[in-house]
Amino acid sequence: MRFARAGLVLGCILAVTSCSGGDETANGAAAADEASPALEAALASIPGPGEPDLAAVRAATERFRDVSVALAEGYVPDPSGMCITAEMEGQPAEDGAMGIHYFRPDLLGLEPGPPNPRVNGTSTYTDFNQPAILLYEPQADGSVELVGVENLVFQKSWAEAGNASPPTFHSVAYKAMMDDPATEPDEAHGFEPHYEAHVWIFRENPNGLFTPFNPNVTCAHAAH
């Protein structure tokens, strides 16, 4: 997950009604396509104890194909308006994209802070039946299509909760994200150190169901 201008974004997140620049005008009509055979096979991933299977996660989040439902339930679009590609993160362009992130500030436990802080929060939330983040691909007609879901937890809060290793989902560890000040790219994309996990349950990902970027997702129709 990538946010530009962290201070501005955090202010917008915590005062959603005063923000603009997100794709709130998209009609978000529910897609009619069914899961491809390859995606159906991927959804057979075996859950860990107490985890939902991926078919159940897909069913639980199906309603968010209509972006107006997501907005009504408290999700807000990334105020930067960015559709995130692998190339933006210093990764090969052929890795594809994540799309536009819509997120629930309460589920991320986002916190206010001084001007221009890195985005911080208290989240240790990992329930994929009601994910903290939804991933949408912009369409040529100005709408957005749901392609995946994501959860993000902050490393400090996760450790304070007594955890010595990253969270996992279906035996796959969340990816640790922390900025390296010695490099030009911001590896944590404006956030304090955190763990994040992407699950491509609405768009087949040939590089893997839990891989951060999806070559079958494009930002070609994004209005940055």
Structural summary, described in words:
The structure is a single chain. It is built from six helices and nine strands. Helix content is 17%, strand content 18%. The longest helix has 8 residues, at 6-13. Mean pLDDT is 85; it is low at 20-32. The protein is an alpha+beta fold and 224 residues long.
Structural class, please?
alpha+beta
- Radius of gyration, in Å, reads 16 Å
Percent strand equals 15-25%
State the helical fraction.
Answer: 10-25%
Average of pLDDT: 85
Instruction: Please summarize the sheet with the most strands.
Output: 7 strands, antiparallel
Number of strands: 9
Spans of at least 5 consecutive residues with low confidence: 20-32
Order of helices and strands: HHHHEEEHEEHEEEE
How far is the N terminus from the C terminus? 16 Å
Helix count from the secondary structure assignment = 6
- Shape type: globular
Q: Topology of this structure?
A:
Elements: H1 6-13, H2 37-42, H3 54-61, H4 67-72, E1 76-77, E2 84-85, E3 97-103, H5 105-108, E4 133-138, E5 144-154, H6 155-160, E6 168-169, E7 172-173, E8 175-177, E9 194-199
Antiparallel strand pairs: 1-3, 2-3, 3-4, 4-5, 5-9, 6-7, 8-9
Task: Give the structure's gist in a few sentences.
The protein is of the alpha+beta class and 224 residues long.
What structural keywords apply?
two-stranded antiparallel ribbon, single chain, 6 helices, seven-stranded antiparallel β-sheet, 224 residues, 17% helix, alpha+beta
